Description:
Blueprint: H1 2-16, E1 35-36, E2 43-44, H2 46-79, H3 84-97, H4 99-168, H5 171-228, E3 240-242, E4 259-266, E5 271-277, E6 283-285, E7 291-293, E8 302-303, E9 308-313, H6 315-318, E10 323-326, E11 333-336, E12 346-352, E13 355-360, E14 364-367, E15 373-377, E16 389-392, E17 396-401, E18 404-409, E19 415-420, E20 429-435, E21 438-443, E22 448-453, E23 459-463, E24 476-481, E25 486-491, E26 496-501, E27 507-511, E28 527-533, E29 540-545, E30 550-556
Antiparallel strand pairs: 1-2, 3-27, 4-30, 5-9, 6-7, 6-8, 9-10, 10-11, 12-13, 13-14, 14-15, 16-17, 17-18, 18-19, 20-21, 21-22, 22-23, 24-25, 25-26, 26-27, 28-29, 29-30
Amino acid sequence: NQTMSRRSSSDSSSSDAPPATPTPLCIICDQAAVGVAPFSRCHMCSQHLSVDVANLFKLKEEVEELLRAYSQESQESQERQGAARAADRAALLRHRQDAESLRRLASDTQQQLQEVNHKFDLVQQHIDSFRSRVTGQLSGVLEAVRVCERDLEDVSSYKQEVATAEAAGDMAELLRLVQSMHESLGDLEADFERSEHLLRDKSDNEEVQVRLLGQLERLVGICAGRSEEGDWSRDAAVTARPEVRDASWTADGSVFDSMVFSHEVKLDAPVQWLAVCSDTSGFVGDRSGRVVPADSAEDRRKPLPQPCIFASFLSFTSKKDHLLVLSFDGSQKLRCHCDIDWKNDIRGLHCDRQLLFIAQRDAVTVTDLSGRKVRRVRPDIEGFGDIEGIGGNAASVFVSSGNKIAAFSKATWQMETVITLSQLPYARLGNMATHDNCILVRDWEHNQVHRVRIDTQQLVASFQTQRSGLQQFAGPIDVAVDSRGRLFVSEFAGHSVRALAADDGSLLWSLGTPGECGSGDGRFDGPWGLAVVTGGPREQLVVADNGNKRLQVFSAS
Length: 557
């Protein structure tokens, strides 16, 4: 029994032991495997394992070679100059190599998107508020007028019924009608007083509303032009010299058309400043050639051309005592004898509807189109010197002196604010134009044009910039902006007119030959004043070609 027990125990022990693990074989040659191949992840003998490891290192070298080619691609693309797409691709590749740069780019883009959306939200909010005020006021006036119409109909009906009752001798009916009207007189009087009050408010606000609506119309026109003319192409005309730069492309991908010479208007004396008036109704030229108000709608004297140009002469050479008023083709020339001191130089002109703003050293005189003085304004501010330039938008007129810009309200004639460019203490600011809630003002001292926000009074940029492609302006004398956002700068010493993007200063093209004076079509000898003509099929730019005693007119190609 003990023997059987030991045997049983031995058998039990041997049955509980794990089976021996078989030696793995090479998947290729059935030899004993020495390890798992890193590339194929299979068991292999020493011979085939070394081959697999060699394949892994070969793949590693191929990957490193691709990475080297990838990292060198940006440098090679930079060497292929003249191709804008290659430059963009190089920039993109540089961003790919630097994850931090990509994160910063994403963050900056997101912030820019938020700012743009915020600005559009603010614009929409103010437009909705303005719309609500205007439409609410007009709706109230309309309802009051309709109530008055009904009241007048009741009065007319009352008179007819009273006449009928008197003719019939019906005293009882006559008494009823009189008593009824007597009871209604209080309501009629209240209706008329309410209507008169609403009409008075409408009249008081109408001028401001018209200006704001005009700004909205211009804004709609700009937006419509930008969206519908997304395929603007640039014409390499003889008189408009396109600059070979990618800066001529705007941020939205559009290209600004250049302008070409249209015609000239010969004059008998050098001219300085220009202003364009689009509404000349109610003014005529008398037999002596002087602008005067029309006596009536039936006045048979020759009406002023519409639109027309107002031009001031170079005072120390011409000794003129009037402004020149002429049509764009030069066929009609008249005189505007303004109520100003003609011994003082004229520093600039600005026209808004039928008001002419004449800037002189000590004040701005506001006249109608015949020259009759309406008002005289002067920035009585300590440290504000002689007036050097003028400009304006629909709501305000701006005058400059030194490094300061004073703003007057066109509605109240009160001074609204004074902007001081403290960064430019020695600036000599001159004439101005407005664009996108900013003032664009030329600076003779620094040979620059500064962009200043009206609402925040901050200096946003000074052109020329790196995007401008210009070292500096050669004696900038005047500025003008058209509805497409093109900034025109006349260079008196450079004998040319530069066209830039008003938002970032990118140089688009040039009129004339920069640095060389001339007298042919599209050439200049000391260009001075600028004016933009809108409202026609094509915008036009008028340039006072001072040295050649003429005006030159350029049209969009």
